[in-house]
Design goal:
- With 190 residues, the protein is mainly alpha-helical.
- It has a single domain, classed as Four Helix Bundle (Hemerythrin (Met), subunit A).
- Helices cover 77% and strands 0% of the residues.
- Helix 3 runs antiparallel to helix 4, helix 3 packs across helix 5 and helix 4 runs parallel beside helix 6.
- The longest helix has 38 residues.
- The radius of gyration is 18 Å and the shape is globular.
- The termini are far apart.
Length: 190
């Protein structure tokens, strides 16, 4: 159970309270540290899967906890960003859409899992995740990043909106596939 990919995944979860805690310190160094920890967490998301595949270290624990770690990180960040006003007004709709989709698809996968039905992650979903992770970094920096890049907040807001649009598209695609299986199961039960 305690192999390199799983350690990286658990490390990502452990980083979440530290990342969110830094939001409470209204100082530039805290924002930059938060961005550094978030970037580290995002990189572990790539490397845990990479090492699991290339080193043949796939495990049931990893398959269980990796998607949860991703969702915990994204949901915690979106909630914190909304709470601290870095996502506000109409932009909060993007955060709500992303969180709703995560619950919906997690529920779908949880339901289909015992039936030995897996819905593979699409390339578009991987792009959604990349854009979402990238945008979250800009939003973390907010006003503290304007000296480096004047449109940091706007880039983050539009990025998270693009991610939300892709979230709807990929969520719809997953639901179409999942609903085919669910309808077939209902027909067998009748």
């Amino acid at each position: 159970m305690w192999n390199l990919p799983n350690i990286l995944t658990v490390f990502r979860v452990v980083l979440i309270p530290f990342i969110i805690g830094l939001f409470y310190i209204d100082e530039p160094w805290a924002a930059w540290t938060c961005l550094a920890l978030y970037s580290l967490a995002a990189v572990t998301d790539f490397f845990d899967g990479y090492f699991a595949r290339t080193m043949n270290l796939s495990s049931a624990f990893g398959k269980f906890v990796d998607p949860i770690a991703d969702k915990l990180l994204v949901a915690a960040l979106l909630i914190a960003l909304c709470s601290f006003g870095k996502i506000d007004g109409w932009w909060t709709l993007s955060a709500i859409v992303i969180i709703m989709r995560e619950f919906l698809i997690s529920g779908l996968r949880e339901f289909l899992g015992p039936q030995n039905i897996q819905i593979p992650v699409s390339k578009l979903a991987k792009w959604k995740t990349f854009i979402q992770m990238f945008a979250l970094g800009f939003l973390i920096m907010g006003e503290y990043g304007v000296d480096v890049y004047p449109y940091v907040l706007e880039t983050g807001q539009w990025g998270i909106t693009i991610a939300a649009v892709l979230t709807v598209i990929t969520g719809w695609n997953y639901m179409k596939v999942g609903m085919k299986y669910i309808i077939e199961m209902d027909k067998k039960d009748v």
